[in-house]
DNA sequence: GTGAAAGCGCTAACAC
DNA sequence: GTGTTAGCGCTTTCAC
């Protein structure tokens, strides 16, 4: 009854509530979990090639937010790496008892299909979702559109794009948005594959300038890559933003500290993680997909 | 008995172990926590002026590591902000049941004194410790010594230092180490207060160059501040490392990406967090203080 | 609507 | 050493 859910008259509930606060009663999470088999942990699973994905600052931000939200409900958070090509692991993870809920970061759709039935309603995805897994994600399409149109509005026409890793489904919509803008302005699409690393950005910059020497802007789907592009361009003696404008995506902490400071699009990562964590923890009926806006941040590089 | 701890004959233990693995038995963390009153959560408390300290990437790294270690033991991690001047909150935190252990990040000694008795043996500090709270920390003294001596060995003599916030006890040893080196080389100490922010670094650079125009090196006890110093010096038209060398401390992710790339001292944050988390989770008798080495990383700025 | 009783899966304390 | 039993603090179910 202490949950406030059960059947009870209004005044009875009030009296109990009063007693609860007066006595400083705090429910015991472990006992509750044991009796209701509801679990005591919120597991956060990050999909990627290697366990190194866990060290990404982005994961840190998600984890920090989730751990904070979870703390208010007396539940803990645990962190797990899900090897990209072994979705089976997800089932193994879910098999463990004590699992109160599951947050999957950067999921692929096949991986999400392996989520066991009995976890439904207690899973959320930060990234793409499925019919059974609600999605909390950045609106990549509009975000990309905003950045590329900013490039166009500042006079750029020969714009190249460095994408993300091909297995990450969220990149598709960004590429589509970029392609659409280029078609609208009658420009050629210049897409180069990326992997979200700075090293790749530097290499991509060299490739782009070699293939299309007249390129006047580069948009990278990751700030780290954009920073790499900045370095690569610098090494080539190309002036930014004089000769070529550079824009990133994510607005990582260092974007404002680079020289030139990086123009990018900022994501409400904390809001997204908080919403996803709450959806799982509070089991509220959630929409199939919740989109969060990405907003342009104009600095020096474009 | 399933814990492997209790009294039992060797063969009996073996048979049980065999059965355990054959049947795929997995202990229920919630039930265990309830019966043994051992708690299901590892709380991580970060001390600071505002709740914004939780957003520091450093906290993210600690949390990530702890959550990973905790996951192996089926316990979750929760994150809490401890207002700098209200150590009482720590007691309140510990009062809640379900608390398996506590990790205090960047503690002050007074705050640590408020740790309740019954939590002893299940608390660890990342930073300074007390008689009852084991400390896991970076060897700031040797780390600082290494950086400053590197500055000296490259010909610098008029070296200024930007410290950290005064309430953080760990800064003292660093200032001592700096002072000692300066005394050894017969140089003047030039200490300016800092607060670990980049903005303060830029301001500190201006102050330093105004007070001591002949300064030929600046050491900041934080990479973010050092990055700010880089900016401040740049604005002043001072060449780095030509006119003035700049060195930081921490080796944050972007230290290698700045221009010029930042010379700094790297800390094994993950190792520290892992050791502290294990000490709390495994209740092993721990040393009063465990020091981790900070090692010089020479890049372009010094 | 309300109260009592039966577990949830473990650990710990006690008898054998 | 080994087996047994009584809870841990809740939720749930079932009588009232």
TrEMBL record, chains A, B:
It comes from Lentzea atacamensis. The keyword DNA-binding applies. Residues 1-36 form the HTH lacI-type domain. It comes from the Bacteria. InterPro entries: HTH_LacI, LacI/GalR-like_sensor, Lambda_DNA-bd_dom_sf, Peripla_BP_I. PANTHER family: ALANINE RACEMASE, LACI-RELATED TRANSCRIPTIONAL REPRESSOR. Keywords: DNA-binding, Transcription, Transcription regulation. GO terms for molecular function: DNA-binding transcription factor activity; transcription cis-regulatory region binding. It holds the Pfam family Peripla_BP_3. This is LacI family transcriptional regulator.
């Amino acid at each position: 009854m202490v949950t406030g859910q059960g059947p009870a008259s209004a005044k009875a509930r009030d009296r109990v509530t009063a007693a609860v606060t007066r006595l400083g009663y705090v429910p015991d999470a472990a006992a509750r979990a044991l009796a209701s088999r509801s679990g005591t942990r919120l597991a956060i699973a990050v999909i990627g090639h290697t366990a190194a994905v866990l060290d990404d600052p982005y994961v840190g931000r998600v984890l920090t937010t989730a751990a904070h939200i979870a703390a208010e409900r007396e539940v803990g958070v645990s962190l797990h790496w899900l090897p990209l090509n072994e979705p089976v692991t997800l089932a193994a993870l879910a098999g463990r008892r004590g699992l109160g809920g599951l947050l999957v970061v950067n999921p692929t759709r096949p991986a999400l299909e392996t989520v066991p039935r009995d976890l439904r309603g207690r899973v959320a995805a930060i990234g793409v979702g499925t019919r059974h897994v609600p999605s909390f994600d950045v609106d990549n399409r509009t975000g990309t559109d905003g950045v590329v149109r900013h490039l166009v509005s500042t006079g750029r026409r020969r714009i190249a794009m460095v994408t993300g890793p091909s297995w990450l489904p969220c990149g598709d919509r960004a590429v589509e948005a970029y392609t659409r803008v280029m078609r609208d302005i009658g420009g050629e699409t210049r897409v180069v594959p990326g992997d979200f690393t700075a090293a790749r950005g530097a290499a991509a910059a060299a490739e782009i300038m070699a293939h299309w020497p007249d390129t006047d802007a580069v948009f990278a789907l990751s700030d780290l890559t954009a920073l790499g592009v900045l370095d690569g361009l610098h090494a080539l003696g190309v002036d930014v933003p004089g000769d070529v404008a550079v824009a990133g995506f994510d607005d990582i902490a260092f974007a404002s500290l680079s020289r030139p400071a990086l123009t990018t699009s900022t994501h409400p990562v904390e809001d997204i993680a908080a919403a996803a964590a709450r959806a799982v923890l509070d089991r509220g009926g959630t929409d199939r997909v919740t989109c969060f806006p990405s907003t342009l941040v104009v600095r020096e590089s474009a």
